[in-house]
Amino acid sequence: MENVLGLVALACGLIVALGAVGASIGIAIMGGKYLESSARQPELMNDLQTKMFILAGLIDAAFLIGVAVALLFAFANPFVIA
């Protein structure tokens, strides 16, 4: 039983950590591309900014879904037999 709980805790940590790293890298790359494109064509800055914020929300949503799954495993563990 303790082995299962320990492995679930490790899995929860990995889910959250890798999700955070992936979301951070994704938003950083997207922000860099936004700055490049707005420097190249400043007249499209408002349209690009709107699209960038929508994509940032989608990237964060994927990370938050991973956090929700990790919380599910942490508090309502389906692997523990009652």
From TrEMBL:
<dbReference type="InterPro" id="IPR038662">
    <property type="entry name" value="ATP_synth_F0_csu_sf"/>
</dbReference>
<keyword id="KW-0138">CF(0)</keyword>
<comment type="function">
    <text>Key component of the F(0) channel; it plays a direct role in translocation across the membrane. A homomeric c-ring of between 10-14 subunits forms the central stalk rotor element with the F(1) delta and epsilon subunits.</text>
</comment>
<comment type="similarity">
    <text>Belongs to the ATPase C chain family.</text>
</comment>
<keyword id="KW-0375">Hydrogen ion transport</keyword>
<dbReference type="Pfam" id="PF00137">
    <property type="entry name" value="ATP-synt_C"/>
</dbReference>
<feature type="transmembrane region" description="Helical">
    <location>
        <begin position="52"/>
        <end position="76"/>
    </location>
</feature>
<keyword id="KW-1133">Transmembrane helix</keyword>
<keyword id="KW-0406">Ion transport</keyword>
<feature type="site" description="Reversibly protonated during proton transport">
    <location>
        <position position="60"/>
    </location>
</feature>
<dbReference type="InterPro" id="IPR005953">
    <property type="entry name" value="ATP_synth_csu_bac/chlpt"/>
</dbReference>
<dbReference type="GO" id="GO:0008289">
    <property type="term" value="F:lipid binding"/>
</dbReference>
<dbReference type="InterPro" id="IPR002379">
    <property type="entry name" value="ATPase_proteolipid_c-like_dom"/>
</dbReference>
<keyword id="KW-1003">Cell membrane</keyword>
<keyword id="KW-0472">Membrane</keyword>
<dbReference type="InterPro" id="IPR035921">
    <property type="entry name" value="F/V-ATP_Csub_sf"/>
</dbReference>
<dbReference type="GO" id="GO:0045259">
    <property type="term" value="C:proton-transporting ATP synthase complex"/>
</dbReference>
<feature type="domain" description="V-ATPase proteolipid subunit C-like">
    <location>
        <begin position="10"/>
        <end position="73"/>
    </location>
</feature>
<dbReference type="InterPro" id="IPR000454">
    <property type="entry name" value="ATP_synth_F0_csu"/>
</dbReference>
<protein>
    <recommendedName>
        <fullName>ATP synthase subunit c</fullName>
    </recommendedName>
</protein>
<keyword id="KW-0812">Transmembrane</keyword>
<dbReference type="GO" id="GO:0046933">
    <property type="term" value="F:proton-transporting ATP synthase activity, rotational mechanism"/>
</dbReference>
<dbReference type="GO" id="GO:0033177">
    <property type="term" value="C:proton-transporting two-sector ATPase complex, proton-transporting domain"/>
</dbReference>
<dbReference type="InterPro" id="IPR020537">
    <property type="entry name" value="ATP_synth_F0_csu_DDCD_BS"/>
</dbReference>
<keyword id="KW-0813">Transport</keyword>
<feature type="transmembrane region" description="Helical">
    <location>
        <begin position="6"/>
        <end position="31"/>
    </location>
</feature>
<dbReference type="GO" id="GO:0005886">
    <property type="term" value="C:plasma membrane"/>
</dbReference>
<keyword id="KW-0066">ATP synthesis</keyword>
<keyword id="KW-0446">Lipid-binding</keyword>
<comment type="function">
    <text>F(1)F(0) ATP synthase produces ATP from ADP in the presence of a proton or sodium gradient. F-type ATPases consist of two structural domains, F(1) containing the extramembraneous catalytic core and F(0) containing the membrane proton channel, linked together by a central stalk and a peripheral stalk. During catalysis, ATP synthesis in the catalytic domain of F(1) is coupled via a rotary mechanism of the central stalk subunits to proton translocation.</text>
</comment>
